[in-house]
Amino acid sequence: MSPLVVEFMGLPGAGKTTIAQLVREELTAAGYLCFSLSTLNSPENIEKRKGGLISKTRTLYQFVLCCIKHRYLAGNALLYTLQVNSFSLISLRRFFNLLVRLNFIESLMKDNYDLLVLDQGLLQNIWSIATTGKQPDNDKYLERLLKNILDEISPFVILVDVESELAHE
Question: Helix, strand or coil for residue 4?
Fold first, then answer.
């Protein structure tokens, strides 16, 4: 049985990580085996300065495997990313991060966790793509991408909604 995936979404500084850590601590204390992304610095981001060539090569290899395994999702993610942002290294990095994160979450789902408590999950990654560019004329790639993720991961999403001024503080 796959673990329940709980993903927190919201503005930077809204309290996602803090709430996710508190939820994980409470659930762990209640006897559940939980994983929280905020407690681990994985998956490695390709632009990180630490990790070395072997680690970066492994991450790139996982990205390629994810693109092959999830070609429909990867295609929709790329088309959506390019719709929101003109072609740039930043937009491609966000696309890359989304698929590396998908591969990482899938590997966690094979472990014996009861819950995955994510303060930076796939939907938050998609949101970060959307907030850096222009509103697409057509939402079909976003709709397809969201459907792919919901079909494959089925996260339970909690929106941490605070005013932007409070999040900034």
Answer: strand
